[in-house]
Design a protein that fits this description.
Chain A: The main subunits of the menaquinol:cytochrome c complex are a Rieske-type iron-sulfur protein (QcrA), a cytochrome b (QcrB) and a cytochrome c (QcrC). The complex is a heterodimer of chains A (223) and B (165). Chain A has 223 residues and is an all-alpha fold. Chain A has nine helices and no strands. Chain B has a three-stranded antiparallel sheet, with no helix packed on it. Classes of the chains: A mainly alpha (223), B alpha+beta (165).
Amino acid sequence: MLQKLYDWVDERLDITPMWRDIADHEVPEHVNPAHHFSAFIYCFGGLTFFVTVIQILSGMFLTMYYVPDIIHAYESVYYLQNEVTFGVIVRGMHHWGASLVIVMMFLHTLRVFFTGSYKKPRELNWVVGVLIFFVMLGLGFTGYLLPWDMKAYFATVVGLEIAEAVPVVGGFAKALLAGGEIIGAQTLARFFAIHVFFLPGALLGLLGAHFYMIRKQGISGPL
Amino acid sequence: MSEKEHKVSRRQFLTYTLTGVGGFMAAGMLMPMARFALDPALEAGAESDFVRVASLDELTEEPQRFDFVVEQEDGWYSSEVTRVAWIYLANNEVVALSPVCTHLGCTVNWEGSESYPENFFCPCHGGRFERDGTNIQGTPPTRPLDVYEVQVEGDDVYLGGTVQR
C-alpha cells in the first residue's frame, strides 16, 4: 500500500534522487560509533538538531494556550501547566530542552574545535555555526520573559541594562528591544514576536545553510 | 545457512527494529503534545450553578424576556456574562426557553417579526418557533428551542444550564 503510493508519486515527480541527495550518504568509519566508540562525539551536532526539533514542536503546541499579554500571560502559563492534561510535560520539554540545546551546541562546538573541522575549506560553516549560536542565545533570552513572573521580568531588566551599556548605540538598542522606555506591555508583545517568528525564521535559514555546506563539503577527515 | 533460507533478512530485521524503536520514541514525544492540544475537546463541560432570575408573581402566560448574570470560567479567564431566558407559565408550570436559535445559533425574540405574532422569530434566516419552543415546519430550524433547568423555591425562580429536547 505505502509502496504503491510512493511509486505513484515517484513515477510523476521522480522523488527518489531527491531522497538520495538528502539522506543516502556514506558515514566514514572514523565518525561511526560502531567502529570506534569515541566517535560518539560526532553525534552532538545531530543531537542539537534533534532537541531543536523538539523545541519547535513543543513551542508550537504551547502557543495554543499562551497569550503574550501582561494581564493574562502568567495566568495562561499557570493554566496550561496545572490545568491542561500533560501541560506540565509539554512545558517541561520546552523548558529543559532550552537548556539542553545550549549544552549540546556547546559540546558540538568543542568537537568541531578540537578536531580542527573549522579549517579550510569549512571556515564559512564555522561562521554560520557561530551565527546559529547567537540566534539560540536570542531565543533563550526572549523566551525567558514570556511567563511574565518576577524572575522573567528582572532577568529581562538586567539583560536590557546590559544592552544599554553598549557605547553609542546602547540607548537606542534598549529602546528598540523594549519597545519604548517602559519594560512592560510592548516589551512582552515584542519579545513574543521575536521569539516565535523572527528568530525561528532566521534559525531555519541558517540551519539550511549549515546542512547544505556539510553535505557539499563532507565530514572532515580523521585526526 | 545462506541468507535466502531466512524469511526475514538481516537488513530487513534491522530496518524493522530501528523503525519500531524510532516510532516508539517519536510517539513518546508526540503523544503528550497531541493530548495537550486535544484537552479542551476531551474535558467534560463544567456543571452550571443555579441563579435566581425572577420571582413567580412576575410571570404570566405570555413569554417575557429576563436577563441574568452568570459566572463564566474560560480557561484562565473568568468573567460575568449576561444570559437571556424567555419565561412563561404553562398550567402553572414555569417554562424557561433559551433564545439561541437551533438553526445556526442567532438570537430569537418573542414576536420578533410583526408578520408572525405568537411566534419566536429569528432574524437571521426567518426561523420560527411556537410559544412552547417547538420549531415550525417549513422554517430552517430542525429541533425545538433548548430549555433551561428550572428550580422554584418559594417565590423565587432559579435557572441552571440548558437542556436539549
